Amino acid sequence: MPWRRREAAVAGVYQTPQGDLSDRTQPEVWFECAKGACTDAGLTLADVEGIIGDGPQGAGIRSRLPGAALGHDLLGKPLRYQASSSVGAAASASGLNLAVHAVETGLADAVLVVNAVAGRPEGSTSADRDQAVAAMAKLSGPYEYVYGTTRVSDYATLAMRHMHEFGTTSEQLAEVAVAQRHGATLHPLSFHGHRGEITVDDVVKSRMVADPLHLLDCCAINQGGGAVLVTTADTVRAQGRHAPVGLLGYGEGHSHIDPSSAPSLASFDAPAMAADRAFELAGVSRDDIDVAGIGDHFTINVLFGLEAAGFCKTGESGQFVTGGALAIGGRLPTNTAGGFLSFSHAGACGIFTMIELIEQLRGTAGARQVSGARHGYLNGVGGAMQNSFSAILGQV
Amino acid sequence: MAAYDKFLPEGLPAWQRPFWDSLREHDVRVQKCSGCGAFRHVPKELCNRCHSSEATWSPISGTGRVYTYTVVRRAPTPAYQAEAPYVLVHVEMAEGFRMIGSLTVDDPRTVRIGQDVRITYEDVDADWSILRFEPA
Ligand SMILES: [Zn+2]
Question: CB contact, 8 Å: A157 with chain B?
């Protein structure tokens, strides 16, 4: 039988409210998201033939064979396809590429990507901020953590170098947080939206966490869930529920695990490589992009992402973002639901950034809608600029 | 000395011990590739230039310049928080590789990218010494 060559598209998406889900179990939230994405697609969990990443936590499914654990143990039937991406907190979003590949080649007809963080886990996904911070610090190796490094300090050292080389300012970083908080106030499921708008002044006067990053330069620490279901574009069209949004181009860039191996900590070649390939495969230019979703563990992340993607020259992202360029209605609306800073930083949180882009390209983003959004640029980063992916999304 | 309650290396493979032993001896030694002569840190089993797996633990000058830094105000645990604010530095060593460490300074506001620093040692308990830097 020949490989099938057919077009895939996002059929369904779902998100829970983002915040403290410690009173719910992780499997409960996982299934809510999985079923929610299927329902949004006009399908059911019984239609799912593939899963990207992990299934829910629970008895009997912890395994060195992650795909095997998702068949009869989880779904009560064999599963046609399982794969995992390795792009850190972006693994669920970069998993879109694997889901699309599986559908386009005929490995599976409906593939699910789920990210769910809930309950009272120990460690980096804990709802307890102190515990989460301590656990995340030790994600780096002993050649870093013995000195008291944190996830914030990892990015702070990059931000400091960017400021040194290019004259980037705290006020410019703050522009990212301000634009994204505005978007979050317009999204009822966001974690920080209820706190209201913030100003550049609020950001630069917030408590310093690790120079030059202030508290409001840093992502949220929260729980939550989300899911995306990918099917053939024909299925999406036949259901007639949503415009079929698909992957127009994709690329990855794997850089370094040891920060001292990176040639520069102020500009990065691997994410630029990822973006160049994604644009090349999509056959669209930077000017064609109407809306963006860029990994934003910290405000500086977005500046690196803009430069790597080629929306501005290396070192010029500070000027680029000044004056509300990233806000809805700005030059390049970015992370319009609030991003990790203000929407959600739960688990493989890149999925939330991706879902917002899908909503924008479906034209269903409500008060956050970027008018006439046709092409979306999606980026996600693992670690502190250690690996990344880029994708171009649009209707197919 | 009160029990040291910050993080110490866990799960270090035996082949990386010479680096930590050299800190305890206050005579830092870093891997030098036997294939191409490049220094490298953190320890790795292969050279990324020539792919040789042969290396020696070689003395270095111990001097360098601050490549970038941060001042940590929100520390990972209470033991680190007790010392905050503290300075973390990435140092471009004279031999051409970078090392991460903490910088001992009275006033974190005086730290500058490009400033000269040198290695010192902090003996934290009977078994472990930690690399630090101080202004040169
Ligand atoms: Zn070599």
Answer: yes
Residue that has been written with the tokens 């630090």 in this structure: B132
CA distance B127 to A9: 58
Annotation: CATH topology of B60-136:
OB fold (Dihydrolipoamide Acetyltransferase, E2P) (2.40.50)
Question: Which tens digit of pLDDT belongs to each residue from A256-294?
Answer: 999 999 999 999 999 999 999 999 999 999 999 999 999
Q: Quick check: bond before A381 cis, omega within 30?
A: no
Domain ranges of chain B: 13-59, 60-136
Q: Ligand 1 centre and the CA of B32: distance in Å? A: 8
Q: d(Cα A394, Cα A243) in Å, to the nearest integer?
A: 10
Q: What's the CATH number of domain A1-396, 3.40.47.10, 3.40.50.920, 2.10.109.10, 3.30.70.3270? A: 3.40.47.10
Q: Are A382 and A89 in contact (CB under 8 A)?
A: yes
pTM assigned to the model:
0.96
Q: What are residue A210's DSSP bridge partners?
A: A213, B72
Residue of B nearest to A150 (CA): B76
Q: Which phi and psi (to 5°) does residue B69 adopt?
A: -160, 170
Encoded amino acid at B109, one letter:
R
Token pair listed for A41: 């697609």
β pairing state of A224-232 and A111-117: antiparallel
The yes/no answer to whether this complex scores an ipTM above 0.90 is yes
Which pLDDT band, with edges at 50, 70 and 90, does A67 fall under? Answer: confident
pLDDT band at residue A228 under the 50/70/90 scheme: very high
Helix (H) or strand (E) holding B11: none
Q: Which residues of B touch A161 (CB under 8 A)?
A: 67-68, 113
Contacts of A31 (CB under 8 A, 6+ apart): A45, A56
Extents of the domains making up chain A: 1-396
> Which helix (H) or strand (E) covers residue A144, if one does?
helix A142-145
Over residues B7-55, the pLDDT tens digits come to 999 999 999 999 999 999 999 999 999 999 999 999 999 999 999 999 9
Task: Measure the CA–CA gap between A217 and A290, rounded to whole angstroms.
Answer: 25
**Which of B4, B23, B73 is most worth mutating to test chain A (most A CB atoms within 10 A of its CB)?**
B73
Give the whole-angstrom CA distance, residue A182 versus residue B136. Answer: 47
> Which residues lie below 8 Å from residue A54, measured CB to CB, with a gap of 6+?
A66, A84
**Residue A230: other Cβ atoms inside 10 A:** 33
Return the closest-CA partner of residue A64 out of A72, A54, A75: A54
